[in-house]
Amino acid sequence: MKDYSKSIYILTIFSLQLFIVLGCCDCLDPAEDPTELPCSVREVTITMFDARVNILEGNFDEDPELDTIYDPVDSYNIHAFRFGSGNNTGSLDNDIRFDKDEGIDRIAVEEYSIPNFRYKLAIFDNAPANEDINGDILIEDVQITDPGIDFAIMRVKGYIGYYRQDFWSESSSRFCEYIRTNNDDIIERFISSDGNQDYSQYGADIQPPRLVTTSINDNFGIIDNNGNIIIENIDDLTNDIDGFTPAQLQNFAAQIERKRLDIYSIRIEVGDVFYYIADNGREYLFAVISIDERDSEGQQDPAVKKRVSIIFSEL
Hints:
With 315 residues, the chain is an alpha+beta fold. The chain has helices at 2-23, 172-181, 183-191, 246-257, and strands at residues 41-47, 53-57, 68-72, 79-83, 90-94, 107-113, 120-125, 137-143, 151-156, 159-165, 200-201, 211-216, 220-223, 229-231, 261-268, 272-277, 283-293, 306-314. The protein is built from four helices and 18 strands. The strands form five sheets. The protein has a six-stranded antiparallel β-sheet with strand order 1-18-17-16-10-11. A four-stranded antiparallel β-sheet has the order 6-7-13-14, with helices on one face. Residues 24-30 have low confidence and may be disordered.
């Protein structure tokens, strides 16, 4: 009886293992490379980032006790583009760290703790550094030239690789055709585990002059542990600053000499095509289809907003 029970047990285990093996014949290997890229076309227009404000002083009817207010400059914009997924194109998210009402037009993009001191040394900039972008793509600058070639400067948060400059259309159909035509090359260059995987975080490996690297080693200030600005500008640490001893100032000076922050930006033109891994982990191919500003002829105000449009598909 025991032998019979043992045989039944072994047969049951074997059958279960066979079922698992056969049942997974069609399972997708998560590491398996794609052979055909999908095309689901989306499009977005991103306005140039400009957090500057104007300071207005005087007496204001709405609040007689108010002697200073902050107005945005004409080209004010604090959004970046964040890729979505599936049917969601994405979003243009404002960076609320730039607070117009408080006159905050720059933020700490790097912070350094100083031994035996309750405050931090900070590097400020008027746009977030790559890793701090509130989204995926930020348009840092747009240059409209006449005559010449319009170009823009773009910062990204994710991983990006430059493909080439050869997509000269706004057609969604042509973009899908472009992906199909270059399917094998795109997979080999960027996606295949056996390929080049020719991309880098922030685009740091893209070759100049397309890559623009900025090293910020000025614009220093002092902040507290909550990020509140204690001293906004440190122009000359040999001068007296209220509340800080000469020894502390010397410590700050020594720290500043060793600090800098590298920001990676990419010069883009119409026709440029990029492979991108977004902050959400998804992969995209996008092309720059427009760099422009509004036609101001016949309008009350001159053109002040500059924009970049891209067409893209999740891969």
